[in-house]
Design goal:
By secondary structure, the protein is of the alpha+beta class. It is about 15% helix and about 35% strand. It has one domain (about 10-115): Hotdog Thioesterase (Thiol Ester Dehydrase, Chain A), CATH 3.10.129.10. The protein is elongated.
């Protein structure tokens, strides 16, 4: 396989008709939201607490996502700061019930910040 996913599988979901625009294409915003959820799941384990998204680096939509595609988001750690965690997220799909063949549809770097109970940035180690 040309593009092997890197990192930990953090989310796996099927694209549904409600996720499309009037032309029947899956919204890019839906795809980004799934990637954001995957990054949050991954970072909460590292931070051992609440995290919020603060930045998303440039993403390019390389391939479309279609209704019925299984979207898999893989997350790998880029760096950990005092209050932030930067991760690289790759989104792949499998089509037509093929579980072994995956197509990389997009990727990007996301940064999350750990928040305390007052919604203020707090140290990752706390």
């Amino acid at each position: 396989m040309k593009n092997q996913p890197k990192g930990e599988l953090a989310i796996k979901v099927v694209a549904m008709p409600k996720d499309t625009n009037p032309a029947g294409d899956v919204f890019g915003g839906w795809l980004l939201s799934q990637m954001d959820l995957a990054g949050g799941v991954f970072c909460r384990k590292i931070a051992k607490g609440r995290v919020v998204t603060v930045t998303i680096e440039s993403t390019t939509f390389n391939e479309p996502v279609f209704i019925g595609d299984t979207l898999c988001c893989y997350v790998s750690l880029v760096k950990t700061g005092k209050t932030s965690i930067t991760v690289h997220i790759e989104a792949f799909v499998s089509r037509d019930f093929e579980s072994e063949y995956v197509i990389k549809v997009t990727s990007g770097d996301f940064k999350y910040v750990k928040l305390n109970g007052n919604r203020k940035p707090t140290l990752i180690n706390e």
